[in-house]
Amino acid sequence: MNNKLYLPQKLDFSFNRLNPIIYLKWIEPNIYYFNNCSLFKNIFDNDSHFKIGRPAEIDWVEFWQHLDRLNIWDWDSEYNYRGLRFYEGSNWHLYIVHQNKTIKTVGSNSFPPGALNQPSEIFIEFLNAVIKLGNSIT
């Protein structure tokens, strides 16, 4: 276990729609980050989509503050939309353990906090926090 309180004990997130779009995983001492927002380009054309490295302490602190503001720790364990499937084929999972907080949740064609069939503003803000942390890797 690490002695730096800003580091997670566990961090594993992915968002997929046919292909991986965003992937972030903590395997001490690094984050493995993949962001392929250009779905029409072969993801293997170059390796600029994939990063391995370490965010600075301030980037971690901002990430945790953002997650606290979004109240992700209270998200349900599963989100499945039962109506029309506007985002059919979208799947995601999130598993974080940080200090005394844990969130383990998944979604299929649905997004928190209200089991919507398209990404909510809160889910989009969460994605932006993940992207910001991933882009901070040095």
TrEMBL record:
It comes from the Bacteria. This is Uncharacterized protein.
